Inverse folding.
C-alpha cells in the first residue's frame, strides 16, 4: 500500500498502472475527454491526501479501494472544487451492505424499530460510509444509472446549506426558488410513475424507485444517473440535465454553511 491513505499525507500523483487499471474497470469515467480525466486524476490525488479511510468488518483498504472511491467521489466536484468536501475527513468502507437499526415513532406515539439495509450513508459534517461491493460494481451498474459513491457525495453537497432538501447551496433565493420549481415538478412526476408501477402494475421507471422516498433522495439518485449514464438520463429527464449542467458545470463556487444526515 502506498501509505497515502492517511490524513494530511503529501499529495502524490497516482501511478499510471493503477490509474489505467481503475479506468479499465469504470468505463463511465474512461469515456470522459482527456482534459477532464487529467483534472479528475489530480483532484483524486488531492482527495486521497485529505481524507482518512477506515476498513470495517475486516475490509482491507488497498490502493484499488482508495482510487476507485476517490475517482468517483470527485466527479461531482470536478468544476466546483474539493472545498465542497472540506467539512469531513472520514470514509468508512464495509465489505458489503450493512444493516442499520432504525427507530421511528408513529403519529399515535408508538415506537417502531426496523432494520434498514444500507449500501452507503453520509453524515452531516461527519463520515461517509460505503459498501465496497457496491463501489466495486460501479462499472457494471452504470447501465442502470446506479452509483453509491456519487449518491452519498451528492448528499454531502446538498447538506452544505442545511438539511438535505434536493437543492444544493445556490447564490440567491431566486436561484433556489427556480431550482426547486424544476426539481419538485420532476420529482412529483417520477413519484406518480412509481406509484402506478407499484400499485397498478404499470411499467417501472428506469431510474431507481428509491428516488421516490423524498426530494433529497431524488436529487441524489438522479445525480447518480446523470454522471454515469448521461445519454439515458437525458432521454428520461431532459429538464434535469439542463438544471444539473447549470450547477455542476458552472465555475468553482464559494461553499456556504451547514445542516443534518442522509442515507
Ligand atoms: Zn440517499
Amino acid at each position: 500500500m502506498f501509505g497515502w491513505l492517511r490524513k494530511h499525507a503529501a499529495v502524490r500523483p497516482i501511478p499510471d498502472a493503477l490509474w489505467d487499471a481503475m479506468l479499465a474497470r469504470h468505463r463511465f469515467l474512461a469515456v470522459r475527454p482527456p482534459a477532464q480525466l487529467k483534472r479528475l486524476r489530480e483532484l483524486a490525488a488531492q482527495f486521497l491526501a485529505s481524507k482518512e479511510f477506515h476498513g470495517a468488518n475486516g475490509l482491507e483498504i488497498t490502493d484499488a479501494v482508495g482510487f476507485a472511491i476517490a475517482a468517483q467521489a470527485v466527479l461531482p466536484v470536478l468544476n466546483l472544487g474539493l472545498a465542497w468536501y472540506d467539512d469531513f475527513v472520514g470514509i468508512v468502507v464495509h465489505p458489503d451492505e450493512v444493516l442499520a437499526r432504525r427507530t421511528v415513532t408513529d403519529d399515535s406515539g408508538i415506537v417502531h424499530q426496523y432494520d434498514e439495509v444500507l449500501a452507503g450513508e453520509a453524515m452531516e459534517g461527519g463520515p461517509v460510509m460505503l459498501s465496497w461491493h457496491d463501489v466495486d460494481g460501479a462499472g457494471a451498474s452504470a447501465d442502470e444509472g446506479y452509483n453509491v459513491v456519487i449518491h452519498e457525495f451528492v448528499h454531502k453537497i446538498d447538506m452544505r446549506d442545511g438539511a438535505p432538501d434536493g437543492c444544493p447551496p445556490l447564490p440567491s433565493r431566486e436561484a433556489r426558488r427556480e431550482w426547486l420549481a424544476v426539481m419538485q415538478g420532476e420529482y412529483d412526476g417520477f413519484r406518480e410513475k412509481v406509484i402506478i408501477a407499484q400499485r397498478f402494475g404499470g411499467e417501472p421507471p428506469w431510474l431507481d424507485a428509491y428516488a421516490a422516498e423524498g426530494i433529497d433522495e431524488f436529487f441524489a439518485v438522479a445525480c447518480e444517473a446523470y454522471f454515469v449514464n448521461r445519454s439515458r438520463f437525458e432521454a428520461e429527464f431532459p429538464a434535469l440535465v439542463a438544471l444539473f449542467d447549470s450547477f455542476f458545470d458552472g465555475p468553482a463556487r464559494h461553499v456556504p454553511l451547514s445542516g443534518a444526515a442522509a442515507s
Q: What stands out?
A: The radius of gyration is 18 Å. The beta strands are 52-55, 90-94, 98-105, 111-118, 120-123, 128-131, 261-262. Residues 1-7, 257-263 have pLDDT under 50 and may be disordered.
